[in-house]
Amino acid sequence: MAIDPNFEENCEMEGEEHGVAVWGPTDPPETLGIRGTHVAVDFDLCIADGACLEDCPVDVFEWVDTPDHPESEIKANPTHEDQCIDCMLCVDVCPVDAIDVDPGRAGRI
Ligand code: F3S
Ligand code: F3S
User: Fold this and answer.
1) What residues line ligand 1, using a CB cutoff of 6 Å?
2) Measured in whole angstroms, how far is the alpha carbon of residue 44 from the centre of its chain?
3) Residue 91 has what pLDDT?
4) What 3-state DSSP class applies to 14?
5) What is the CATH number of the domain that holds 29?
6) Which of 2, 24, 62, 93 makes a 20 to 30 Å CA pair with 50?
7) What is the pLDDT along the chain (109 residues), one digit of tens a residue?
8) Are 41 and 75 in contact (CB under 8 A)?
9) Could you tell me if residue 2 is inside a domain?
10) Is residue 59 part of a domain?
């Protein structure tokens, strides 16, 4: 399974957390939804591999705590998605395809 690249159409924006949009449905702590818009991370897929944090040339991602989530207790939040230069490295390196980046999708909160 991979992040749904059409989440904007298929998911409802429920609000904002850690500076980015939250796309539901969510049911914390087990179900956290997709975070971010231009740079989107499916928190329910993220296993805290960390490659996206290491490789992003402009430091878009920051760790956030997600205690009691079944996959991992920290997640890569696209806090600085407005700085993304669309290099797509994060999309390529994530081992669970949790990230989708679309230059045509504006960040929104
Ligand atoms: Fe960084 Fe990914 Fe954008 S690596 S520059 S957030 S495409
Ligand atoms: Fe998570 Fe993938 Fe990054 S597993 S920490 S989104 S490389």
Assistant:
1) 39, 55-58, 60, 84-90, 101
2) 9
3) 98
4) strand
5) 3.30.70.20
6) 24
7) 999 999 999 999 999 999 999 999 999 999 999 999 999 999 999 999 999 999 999 999 999 999 999 999 999 999 999 999 999 999 999 999 999 999 989 766 6
8) yes
9) no
10) yes
Atom from ligand 2 closest to the CA of residue 76:
5
Q: What is the reported pLDDT for 74? A: 98
User: Do the strands 62-65 and 74-77 form a parallel or antiparallel pair, or are they unpaired?
Assistant: antiparallel
How many Cβ atoms are within 10 Å of 85's Cβ, its own excluded? 11
**How confident is the model at residue 106, as a pLDDT?**
79
Domain assignment present for 44: yes
Distance 73 CA to ligand 1 centre (A): 22
Report how many domains make up the chain. Answer: 1
Indicate the residue type of 102. D
Distance separating the N- and C-terminal Cα atoms of the chain: 27
State the distance from the centre of ligand 1 to the C-alpha of 14, rounded, in angstroms. 24
Q: How far is CA 43 from the centre of its chain?
A: 6
Q: Which pLDDT does position 62 carry in this prediction?
A: 98
Cβ of residue 74 lying under 6 Å from some atom of ligand 2 = no
